[in-house]
Amino acid sequence: MTKTLSSSLPNPTIQSSPIMRILLAEDETRIAEFVRKGLEEQGFTVDLSSDGEDALHLATTQAYDVIILDIMLPGKDGLHVLRELRAAQILTPVILATARAALDDRLTGLDLGADDYITKPFYMEELIARLRAIHRRHTGERLSLRVVGNLRMNLMKREVHRGDRLIELTSREYNLLEYLTRTAGRIYTRTQILEHVWGYYFDPKTNVIDVHVQRLRTHLANEGEDREAIIKTVRGVGYRIVASDSESQAGT
Ligand code: CA
Fold it and tell me: What are phi and psi of 185, to 5 degrees?
């Protein structure tokens, strides 16, 4: 028999919400309720599943930030669930919960693509610390690379490449490029750019933006390329980044 208990919180918008949504697959009701209560007290949203088949169904149809997967589950054991998830290209981080210090299970689990494991019984503090660490690692990797056409920015290292070429930028130039590339194609006004990149009020007639945009263009331009290929001027308004490099071919 399959039983799914959902918390009363509505499905959050994963992208913008800092709330972590957890799938907890655990068949021992007492443990499951205890862990769920502990996680909800910390502000997590928790879906509970007591069966491997059900857990697999939820994990493949819902968006979770982390899955806590007990290995000994009815229906389908945790290792099988994990194998099928990864085979389906679902890369949601997984913490395996083992009832004992079963080295084989842990090694198999890590081989299958588990991100971490925890041995029962565990302290809630330990589980929460592991959840947060995994989530940080996972979102960090996913969010740290920004790609616009053949422009690549590593936001963790503050490195910029165009194709294979590493582009050296001053801190201010980098911040300007980072701001303009937040949404490719969107027009950023001079006032917005001043507020975000310089962070304090400037006379909007100042040419500080134009000077920095000119420098950025010089750094970014490839040999013989139109200098405005990537950063377009929107006259009287501001600037926008274009994603497509083919737009730069017009004048050649
Ligand atoms: Ca179990």
Answer: 90, -25
- 3-state SS, residue 50: coil
Q: Cα Rg for the chain, rounded, in angstroms?
A: 24
CA of 249 to the centre of ligand 1 (A): 61
Ligand 1 centroid–CA 214 distance in Å is: 62
3-state secondary structure of 89: coil
For residue 38, give both structure tokens.
């502990």
Distance 2 CA to ligand 1 centre (A): 14
Omega within 30 of 0 (cis) for the link into 204: no
Q: How far is the CA of 110 from the centre of ligand 1 (A)?
A: 19
pLDDT in tens, 139-193: 776 667 888 888 998 887 889 999 889 999 998 899 899 999 988 889 999 888 8
The reply to whether the predicted model has a pTM over 0.85 is: no
Domains annotated on the chain, with CATH: 2-139 (3.40.50.2300), 145-250 (1.10.10.10)
Q: Around ion ligand 1, which residues have CB less than 5 A away?
A: 27, 70, 72
Q: Tens of pLDDT along 45-67?
A: 899 999 999 999 999 998 888 99
